[in-house]
Specification:
Elements (H helix, E strand, L loop, with lengths): L2 E9 L3 E10 L2 E11 L6 H12 L9 E7 L3 E2 L4 E2 L15 H9 L6 E5 H12 L7 E7 L3 E7 L2 E4 L6 E2 L2 E2 H5 L1 H12 L6 H5 L5 H26 L3 E5 L10 H10 L6 E3 L5 H8 L9 E3 L1
Parallel strand pairs: 1-4, 3-15, 4-7, 8-13, 13-14
Antiparallel strand pairs: 1-2, 2-3, 5-6, 8-9, 9-10, 11-12
Helix pairs in contact: 3-9, 7-8
Length: 294
């Protein structure tokens, strides 16, 4: 009987979410999930020490254990080398061969450690086990501190790298990521905020929420219309922290698309952070033959 354990991780600038999976024949069992706060501004040694302390708790048999990590771009996913240097995270990991470091630090063979783009992992998880399961072509977006994007065509999922594409007077991420909200708060009120939650929790901003998300919806619908005209995907699946407030803008996005003659299903992820974990773990198994049990 095929029997192996896979530790899947979704690594962001401020958190690390992991899921321990066990595969037995055609059944994929989720044994445990955990979310930890991490500080990506630390030194290389300190970041790795954080990861080691978390991962070691789950490795009982190094000979039958795999690790699959979803990491943000830019990153050499095949060789496990971090190439992030111009973002506010992981600057001290630039040029570090994380596959080699993890192999030595956890006493695992190099072949038992894989990496995947975080947006690809999200869409792979949704396409296999979530809201995208019934579509052949998809655009996946994670709306959060940055903008993650991926395309699915048939069985292939690939990073779309749309965050840095030109849009209006800047880049797409400037209008769809958290920075759009933080810039709004600073420009209009001189207030420093960390994200959407701060706006929603501020009672004195209640009257601003409607117009704010109306403008955000306009940005998102214009962006989706542009991408749909180029790629003609069947649906969009949206995740990320901003998607938790989708009830404030998603109907307006659909309305904006309809005005452009585009009838495009927009699905909001129900798997949440689990999407990327399932997608990362899928590097080690064939999703078409698996049933999932949690």
């Amino acid at each position: 009987m095929t029997h192996k354990k896979i530790l899947a991780g979704d690594i962001g600038g401020s958190h690390l979410t992991i899921g321990l999976f066990e595969e037995k024949e055609s059944q994929l069992n989720l044994l445990h999930t955990e979310r930890r706060a991490v500080d990506s501004s630390l030194s290389e040694d300190d970041i790795l020490a954080q990861w080691y302390s978390i991962f070691r708790q789950y490795i009982d048999n190094p000979n039958d254990f795999q690790i699959s990590l979803a990491m943000p771009a830019p990153f050499d996913y095949e060789n496990g080398i971090c190439l992030i240097k111009e973002q506010d995270k992981f600057k001290n990991l630039y040029g570090v061969n994380l596959k080699l470091k993890l192999s030595k630090g956890l006493d695992l063979p190099l072949t038992s450690i894989k990496f995947i783009n975080d947006a690809e992992a999200f869409l792979q998880g949704e396409a296999s086990f979530g809201k995208g399961a019934n579509f052949s072509t998809l655009l996946g977006l994670t709306l959060g501190s940055g903008l993650g994007s991926a395309y699915k065509a048939g069985e292939q999922v690939m990073d779309a790298e749309l965050w840095s594409s030109p849009f209006k007077e800047g880049l797409v991420e400037d209008y769809l990521g958290t920075i759009w909200f933080t810039n709004w708060a600073k420009k209009k009120f001189g207030r420093e905020i960390s994200g959407v939650k701060d706006i929603l929790d501020s009672k004195d901003l209640n009257n601003e929420i409607g117009p704010l998300f109306k403008n955000y919806a306009k940005n998102l619908s214009e962006f989706l219309a542009r991408e749909w005209r180029q790629h003609r995907f069947e649906a969009v699946v949206i995740g990320g922290n901003i998607s938790l407030s989708s009830h404030l803008f998603i109907d307006q996005v659909s309305e904006g698309l309809r005005k452009e003659g585009i009838d495009l299903p927009i699905e909001i992820s129900e798997l949440g952070e689990m999407s990327a974990l399932y997608g990362a773990a899928s590097l080690y198994f064939d999703t078409s033959r698996l049933r999932v049990s949690s």
